[in-house]
Amino acid sequence: MPLTDPTSGAVQETPDRAGISSAPLATEEVVVLDYGGQYAQLIARRIRELGVCSELLPHHVGAAEVAKRKPKGLILSGGPASVFGEGAPVLEKELLELGIPVLGICYGMQMLAHSLGGDVQAADHGEFGRTDLTVSDNGVLLAGQPAEQTCWMSHRDAVFSPPAGSRALASSPASPVAAFEDEARRIYAIQYHPEVVHTPFGQEVLRTFLEDICGCRRDWTPSSIVAEQIERIREQVGTGRVVCGLSGGVDSSVAALLVHRAIGDQLTCVFVDHGLMRKNEGEQVIEAFRDHFGVPLVAVDAEERFLAKLAGVSDPEAKRKAIGAEFIRVFEEEAEKIQGADFLVQGTLYSDVIESGGGTGTSTIKSHHNVGGLPDDMQFQLVEPLRTLFKDEVRAVGAELGLPDRLVWRQPFPGPGLAIRIVGGEATRERLEVLREADAILQDEIRQAGLYRELWQSFCVLPDVQTVGVQGDERTYGNLIVIRAVTSEDAMTADWARLPYDLLEKIASRMIGEIPQVNRIALDITSKPPGTIEWE
Ligand code: XMP
């Protein structure tokens, strides 16, 4: 079917963008415009799970910005506004002239109905949560689905009649029109949320839209991501030399491996061991990258330098600053030795891009509070091979590249390392050693219990206090170790993990039995909020 090329207005014979030279390689993409809905990011993730690349853009970027992506389809998300509210986002008509199918969800549907002449009204009762849905006409969008099903609703206004030329497909108790479509204009709409798990046929709605309506190939997989990124990296870097700071975390590891796959020994990785890592962690990074993958790696043993900077420092922020500043100094010294390096690899993720304004082309450097955060004035061009990926996709790419499970599934670990887990006191070599041993026992037991991947983070804290105990008829005055284990989706909120009592008992007795300096174990049962995950 001929399509209008959204960038030129010219008729283009094939909807497949693979042959268009300006198109970003062969990836097909569906754009999700975010109208402020709490599930907007989830829509993009669900589309990706169905094997189609999806980008989330703030709605105000406009049709021209959407057109630049040459998407195969467009989704208008839900949002908190009412089409009757002052300042509510209105539908930009140009979005319907891009020549691609459009699916409106929740507010997206109401906006479509309202602006195309349908009847939207403020209903007496909204619908929130699980709701019965009756499909009266499957149309294309709901093809093959049962007449009676449940769905997840979250709305007050409702569509009472669809725009002229559209067919109503379904209804619910408070939504006379819970879905409609206009096949000729390729406009589709549903009031409910297909992206949440409480809508059993939700993923089927999205699959139908992507595959049957937009004609997407659904071939966006870890191996196609790897192939595409390799091509992009080669294109960007040419014969240039590239530096990558390796931390042992999954992001920098996967980014480094991708770049190495693409350009081989034009890449040099720099691993700064600040002496604040967990037990054997430095060796594992070196072993994996240098020995196993053959990546040129400069490993700097900088423990003495960092410990010297941390001497006498107890304040948490002062510790972070001291470690951050020293990290930059060491990294710069090493990077300068790499002749002719123009490029720096950063493990920026798609969630960082979205958080900082939505991927409208502005380059964002992941700075956060990360020790790996390098200053803006470093004279490097950035290579960001993970910029389009969510964390779980980075893990899948890591596995595809053969990264060991231990690195692929590593729990997040703060850049300043164990130093910010020695609380209220100085991070000395002796204290770090005690904490490292306790942490190793905890990790070992948690892995053996098969709980490591279920936990967002599990670690030990060493407060600067001594407690009285009795061991072997003798009075002891030793260290307290606190066990902290949390579950979380994104570290913004967290719940303390209900570890089995038997496991806790085993961990506690091993720590006290195997570490002479430790005589008491406590468990942190604080959620976030009000607590934070780390203690400092
Ligand atoms: P909080 O303690 O704020 O931690 O609940 C949220 C997440 O951030 C990690 N974290 C850090 N990461 N440098 C880092 O790179 C830091 O200074 C830092 N402080 C906290 C923490 O481990 C958790 O995953």
Task: Write up this protein.
Helix content is 30%, strand content 25%. With 536 residues, it is an alpha/beta fold. The protein folds into 3 domains: 29-213, Rossmann fold (3-Layer(aba) Sandwich), CATH 3.40.50; 222-408, HUPs (Rossmann fold); 428-523, GMP Synthetase, Chain A, domain 3, CATH 3.30.300.10. The protein is globular, with a radius of gyration of 27 Å. The termini are far apart. Mean pLDDT is 91; it is low at 1-25 and 359-371. Xanthosine-5'-monophosphate binds at residues 320, 369-371, 412, 414-416, 457, 491, 528, 532-534.
Write the layout of secondary structure elements.
Elements: E1 3-4, E2 11-12, E3 29-34, H1 40-49, E4 53-58, H2 63-68, E5 73-76, E6 102-105, H3 107-115, E7 119-135, E8 148-161, E9 167-172, E10 175-182, E11 187-190, H4 202-213, H5 222-237, E12 241-246, H6 250-263, E13 267-273, H7 281-292, E14 297-301, H8 303-310, H9 316-337, E15 341-345, H10 350-355, E16 381-383, H11 391-400, H12 405-408, E17 422-423, H13 429-448, E18 457-463, E19 466-471, E20 474-487, E21 495-496, H14 501-514, E22 518-523
Parallel strand pairs: 3-4, 3-5, 5-6, 6-11, 12-13, 12-15, 13-14, 15-16, 17-18, 20-22
Antiparallel strand pairs: 1-2, 7-8, 7-9, 9-10, 10-11, 18-20, 19-20, 20-21
Bound molecules: xanthosine-5'-monophosphate.
